[in-house]
Specification:
mainly alpha; D-Maltodextrin-Binding Protein, domain 2; five-stranded mixed sheet; 24 helices; 5 strands
């Protein structure tokens, strides 16, 4: 018989390793993301500019208004701007606050990922999953950005962790925590309400078939109730603002520009088009409330709209999930397949891994409904793939160890071979991602120092505050200006529209026409109006060429 005493040092060492492993991983993730932000966060991203401006306007007492300053902003939920506003009181800058929030939440993502992977597949898989989260370039760059998707992913994985705990143990506290986290995620991206509703309904249906019926029903209702409590203020805000009960408003705005795209318009025309009478037609040319109130559709219309979007999105979603090199594929997807199907599924795994599959499929379902698939929308899907990729790497380790042991018969060599295969597979994923991360257009936005410089220059000019026309949010953000989109139209009609809106400045960026038919010519030949006077013309080596025109209406223009 073996004495139990020798096991105690091992258990103590294991406990010590556990105590320091997770904080250490979070710290490393934090340092890496801060380093990336210093090297790559030269300018605020486009959508980040809107979030930051909302925060600034809230602190200035102007209300929930964005950079377009054309009424209440109903497209973006409130939690992220409120967090930016709160943190900016400490750090003194909305841009720094947005990056700090994402960096911290990006590093904290290690915690729910590790604990969930450990709960599902044990410590080895948990360590591998945490390593992928700490070092994956997409998650690093995303956490150092000012987009909201990184914060959303962290909240959703925390929600998934507590959901799995509730499914296993049926503890009421876990279901309440799940509902609260779904509610917080909903306040960042509204589609989270779909998962809250799905799993609450799924729990009620499951209660018909399980022994612990009462606890399952109570847990499902607690999840839904906790979500409702957190979501209620935003639902009340949307309902009050629009005069109609609403859980979200983003879908109506997306429906409006999506229908325009389905009619043959480009994205630029759908959001910034005007009529021949100079009326605002594009979705972002009008107040959100005006677009929402003027949009009506039946359930059949919306279903057809979703089907149309899904048909268009299937191919790019499949390409991204299975083969996007910036994700680390094809190595990543190969490990995912191995992780899902490398070993048989037990009843327990069917329950918990099944929840992960449903979770991932819901993220994909949301992507199917989107009209414009931006890369950042895939963060949540990538987060789910990492669990199975780590499991696949562990399957590879077990195979390598067993194979070498059966051939060589030496445990040390077998274990070393298995571990080597596992970490080599994960390293290939990370190396592939790192090699191709620079090809993702989204991550170029933070490198546009020239736009920041132009905006800061413009901010020191008169008048103050300013109204700027352009197609870029970064320059007007740094100028502290309101933005009016240059219209999608021919040159003559666009000039008439500019005269009608009478901005203070027009911003043009070389090589980036914004999808408008005339801006390339305006940039090279000048704005064809005596009211436009060139006041800024900067072209630095290796940087963008930006021109800014002061708009001073002539007597004839003012009369028109």
């Amino acid at each position: 018989m073996h004495s139990p005493n020798p096991a105690r040092p091992s258990a103590a060492a294991d406990a010590l390793a556990t105590r320091w492993l997770l904080p250490g991983a979070v710290l490393v993730a934090l340092i890496i993301r801060i380093g990336w932000a210093f090297g790559h966060g030269l300018a605020i991203e486009q959508e980040g500019a809107e979030y930051a401006r909302i925060a600034e306007n809230l602190l200035a007492g102007k209300g929930y208004v964005g950079i377009f300053n054309n009424g209440v902003q109903l497209n973006f939920p409130p939690l992220y701007p409120l967090m930016i506003a709160a943190v900016s009181l400490i750090v003194g800058s909305a841009e720094i606050a947005a990056r700090a929030i994402n960096i911290v939440l990006g590093a904290v993502l290690v915690i729910p990922v590790f604990k969930l992977a450990e709960l599902l597949h044990g410590r080895r898989v948990a360590v591998a999953t945490a390593a992928l989260v700490v070092f994956h370039p997409v998650l690093i760059a995303g956490a150092a950005s000012t987009y909201s998707e990184g914060a959303y992913l962290t909240l959703m994985i925390f929600a998934l962790l507590f959901l799995v705990r509730w499914a296993i143990h049926r503890r009421l506290s876990a279901s309440i925590a799940t509902g609260v986290l779904f509610g917080l995620a909903y306040l960042i991206r509204p589609e989270a309400f779909l998962l809250a509703g799905l799993f609450a309904a799924g729990g009620l249906v499951a209660a018909l078939f399980v022994k612990e019926r009462r606890r399952t029903i109570l847990g499902s209702l607690a999840l839904l109730g906790a979500f409702a409590v957190i979501a209620a203020p935003n639902v009340a805000f949307l309902t009050h603002s629009t005069g109609k009960f609403r859980i979200e408003a983003k879908g109506t705005l997306a429906y409006q520009w999506g229908q325009k795209i389905n009619q043959g318009m480009s994205y630029a025309e759908a959001i910034s088009g005007i009529g021949p009478d100079l009326s605002d037609q594009g979705v972002f040319m009008r107040p959100n409330l005006d677009v929402i109130r003027s949009t009506s559709y039946s359930l059949k219309d919306y279903a057809e709209f979703i089907v149309s979007a899904a048909k268009k999105n299937v191919a790019p979603i499949v390409r991204t999930v299975t083969g996007d090199a910036s994700f680390g594929s094809p190595w990543l997807f190969a490990l995912v397949v191995l992780g899902l199907f490398g070993t048989a599924w037990s009843r327990q795994r069917l329950l918990v891994d099944g929840l992960l599959v449903v979770y991932a499929l819901m993220f994909v379902l949301v992507l199917l409904t989107v009209q414009e698939l931006w890369f950042r929308y895939f963060y949540a899907v990538l987060g789910m793939l990492l669990f199975w990729a780590a499991k696949g790497a562990e399957e590879l380790r077990a195979w390598g160890e067993a194979t070498v042991r059966s051939i060589v018969g030496r445990d040390v060599v077998a274990r070393a071979t298995g571990e080597g295969l596992k970490w080599l597979a994960l390293l290939l994923v990370l190396a592939m991602s790192f090699r191709y991360i620079s090809s993702v257009d989204q991550f170029d936005e933070s490198l546009k120092q020239a736009r920041k410089d132009a905006g800061l220059w413009l901010g020191h000019q008169e008048p103050a505050p300013k109204r700027v026309m352009g197609f870029d949010l970064q320059v007007p953000y740094y100028a502290g200006a309101d933005l009016i989109f240059l219209p999608y139209a021919d040159s003559e009609l666009a000039l008439r529209y500019v005269a009608k809106r009478n901005p203070d400045y027009i911003v043009l960026i070389g090589g980036s026409p914004g999808g408008l038919p005339y801006t390339g010519r305006w940039f090279s030949d000048g704005v064809p109006s005596p009211s436009a006077r060139l006041v800024y013309d900067e072209a630095r080596p290796g940087s963008e060429h930006i021109k800014i025109y002061r708009w001073i209406p002539s007597a004839a223009t003012a009369t028109n």
